[in-house]
Design a protein that fits this description.
alpha/beta; five-stranded parallel β-sheet; single chain; seven-stranded mixed β-sheet; 28% strand
Length: 312
Amino acid sequence: MADQATYLFSTRTSKVLAEKISKFYGQNLGKINFQEFSDGEFEPALDESVRGGRVFLIGSTFPPADNLLELLLMMDAAKRASAKSITVVIPYFGLARQDRKDKPRAPIGAKLVANLLTAAGATRVMTMDLHADQIQGFFEIPVDHLYASTIFIDYIKSLKLKNLTIASPDMGGAKRAKNYAIHLGAEVVIAYKERKKANIVEEMFLIGDVRNRNVILIDDMIDTAGTLCKAADILMSSGAKSVRAMATHGVLSGKAYENIENSKITEVIVTDTIPIKIELSSKIKVLSCASLFADVMKSVHKHQSISDKFII
């Protein structure tokens, strides 16, 4: 099956990352003709035959919802063009925070997206650092769940920081922080937070000692950066020498760039699963996840194990 023809296509907003992935993969992106109507409706049409082939469709599903819709339409186009398999590569899986009913009459958005992807024709899903691991169970098709730790750990080691401590900005990320700490031989602290509503932290307390420590906050995403900056303030006031932050997905909404630039954080490191406006903050560094996705795509195509791609 390894000689089966492969085709790579990208949504418009993920084109920069997709071009990097295609370069590492060793194959150019396929062309798509986009027809746009005056009312905002659009129609993507694959510009080459994919009959009997393996199709990789690359696109992060961050807002607006048009990004998800565009990916779904591309999948439907590939299915109706008789592609044998459709692997949808979603570096950032949108609506992943809606993984359960946390209040009456609330939707489970992540499950809805899983249903939509399957209905549109996906035969496999590839993504990175889901907000909740259990989302993998929302699918009845294979899910390759990658981790940015394979990228971040090498970078942390290159910093050669002494007295290193890994911090989680909340209780939910404690396991992730512990796993990083084990690989790096570092200590762990946790910032316990209480929210009154989404994106607004009411109170935060530090569990652990950071005096004279170089601290790295680890999270799966940075949205408004409010929690991150508040955690950095507490860490520095508790005696930390420096505070850095690492997150897979730089959502960076609202005043995130301003919050980061004015914070006590030395550096914020994210991947390029979502396009980042690095010119808005001198503290943001972007590490590409393109080679990781390309390697896993190659292994999937050749029916090879991908277990060596998982550090955490």
